[in-house]
Amino acid sequence: MPSSVMSTPNDLRPPAAVSATGLRKSYGDRTVLDGIDLDIPAGSVFALLGPNGAGKTTTVKILSTLIAADGGQARVAGHDLAASPDRVRAAIGVTGQFSAVDGLITGEENMLLMADLHHLSRREGRRVTAGLLERFDLVDAAKKPAQSYSGGMKRRLDIAMTLVGNPRIIFLDEPTTGLDPRSRHNMWQIIRELVSGGVTVFLTTQYLDEADELADRIAVLNGGRIAAEGTAEELKRLVPGGHVRLRFSDPAAYRSATVALREVTGDDEALSLQIPSDGSQRELRSILDWLDSAGIEADELTVHTPDLDDVFFALTGSHRPNQPNQPEEAVR
Question: Residues in domain ABC transporter (predicted)?
Fold first, then answer.
């Protein structure tokens, strides 16, 4: 199994919002991060996947200055993590696995408290608060205690509070855990809007469809190391099982293709052939060119590629998806 996939040449990629080399972290005799490298372009969504205890939250805590790494170097928003932690903190926002919302005060009061922590004037704090409450559709609930909010509303308020300081980089650690499907999709839309506004999002998640839906690049963390990194499509091509399916309505065309093509699996009843393929443009063109040259016409061509579940299981040795309601870091 390859440990990585081809990356875009550095001179063609946007400047890095987050970069790290050889990050290490241990708790006692347990090595959580064993020298990981990261290079995350500005204005993108980067998703970090991994089983429970893989080190996802530890990575977020290090890059957001909450804990120190044991080794390695990192730059966040252009600032050295070790030398300029205050500048890093001024450029980032963090939404953890567990809500930072104070349920005993109103949503508006939570926002104004965050504005005070960012040293905004009272007038500016109220202006920013009003704008974010409207942006996140929380105006009607603004005067109500936050403990009365639904899970999705609390998560929206959590992110709104994170945006008070106008961060350029946002770390979202399991942002949709425990949300219903509609709230999850609403959160996805919020993330897309943030990125369209130039914000960089570092996302950890155990929902593989979430990473597939949102991330420009994905890294799979396992055993303290990055097992693979690339786009969702690049990662899917790392594991076997991809194929092209040809379906025929003409039995004669089906028989001709069956005889001529090698390494195919035929279904005589469905008049379909399955050809092993990684789904790449080159392979599809080769199959279509062969059909044209042989004078054989298929009625339907479909491409089947492994999904991120297959990638996750292959790279981590997992047998079942992790339960999203379990704490991610077993070592803390």
Answer: 18-248
Give me the pLDDT at residue 318, please: 60
Find the mean pLDDT for residues 193-201.
Answer: 93
What are the chain's domains? Answer: 10-101+149-236 (3.40.50.300), 243-305 (3.30.70)
Provide the mean pLDDT of the chain. Answer: 87
In sequence order, what are the beta bridge partners of 244?
A: 275, 303
Element (H, E) at 46: strand 45-49
Least confident of 67-71, 126-130, 132-136, 326-330: 326-330
DSSP lists the bridge partners of residue 220 as 49, 228
Place of tokens 């970069």: 19
pLDDT recorded at residue 323: 41
Integer angstrom CA distances of residue 5 from 112, 233, 309: 45, 10, 17
For the whole prediction, is pTM greater than 0.70? yes
4 touches 37 (CB < 8 A): no
**What CA–CA distance (Å, rounded) separates 66 from 55?**
14
pLDDT at 325: 40
Q: Closest by alpha carbon to 46, among 20, 80, 11?
A: 20
Neighbouring C-beta atoms of residue 85, cutoff 10 Å: 16
- Long-range residue pairs from 190-199, CB within 8 A, at least 24 positions apart, any chain: 190/136, 190/156, 190/159, 191/45, 194/163, 194/170, 195/43, 195/44, 195/45, 198/42, 198/43, 198/168, 199/43, 199/167, 199/168, 199/169, 199/170
CA dihedral 188, 194, 197, 202 (to 10 degrees): -110
pLDDT: which is higher, 241 or 3: 241
Whose structure tokens read 């093509």? 261
> Cβ(43)–Cβ(195) under 8 Å?
yes
